[in-house]
Amino acid sequence: MKKIVMYAHGGSENHGCEAIVRSTLDLLNDKYKPILLSYRKDQDIEYGLDKLVEVRQEIGSFNKVSLDFMQAYFYQKCFGEYYKMDALLHKNSISNLEQIDISLFIGGDNYCYSGAEKYFMINKYMRKKSKKMVLWGASVEPNLLRNPIIESDIKQYDYIFARESISYEALKRINDNTYLYPDPAFYLSRERIDLSSDLLKQNLIGINLSPLITEYERNKGIALKNYEVLIRYILNDTNYGI
């Protein structure tokens, strides 16, 4: 049986991350028993992922008298490179893995935000443990791929599965082993629920409220206020329900 690890999982409070884990487990079809490295193990236990997969905490601590720390501290202070220090928080959990056959970087939108340089170092640690490395179910911000550190990181994946066409085209230019494949979350089993008959008579709009956007607010609370304005407009000026 092949040994597989899923990593770079942000925690199940982000239900998009949770969905990728659950659907990937379904796709593996009980043939493999992967390990899940998680940034927030407590969240995964809260939402029951520990009943499906072995969950280990990915982000930990580091030894401040180690050579790794001194090198990372030097680059941070002298060159403003914070990503080496950030990546150190992941090193122990990866180093404690047994040798594995396949590692799945549970992509999501990890390569869409600033700070993605740290994955270059995290993947450098993982390459010492894994025979094959896969970027799985990913979206990317194409402009970030102009960064030579991130470009080098992307080139070294053995396989990449992009979940939409914009990311696919951007990644394919860097790594030939890139494939267009739907977000694994679409493979989740459906759970039917009963909605009121009055609600079903309307045309409906679903709004996905992500807590991540509040981290980018310049004015606290402005995102929620804009959602409120949008909802009022839909209810008052259209024939749609929500």
What would you note in describing this structure?
- The protein contains 9 helices and 9 strands.
- It has 242 residues and is of the alpha/beta class.
- The model has no long low-confidence stretch (mean pLDDT 91).
Strand order in space, largest sheet: 3-2-1-4-5-6-7
Biggest sheet descriptor: 7 strands, parallel
Total count of strands: 9
Shape: globular
Strand content: 15-25%
- Secondary-structure-based class equals alpha/beta
Tell me briefly what this model is:
It contains nine helices and nine strands. With 242 residues, the protein is of the alpha/beta class.
Give a quick set of tags describing it.
alpha/beta; two-stranded parallel ribbon; 9 helices; 9 strands
List strands and helices in order, with pairings.
Blueprint: E1 4-9, H1 15-28, E2 35-38, H2 41-46, E3 54-57, H3 67-79, H4 83-95, E4 100-111, H5 118-127, E5 130-140, H6 148-155, E6 159-162, H7 165-172, E7 178-180, H8 197-200, E8 203-204, H9 222-237, E9 240-241
Parallel strand pairs: 1-2, 1-4, 2-3, 4-5, 5-6, 6-7, 8-9
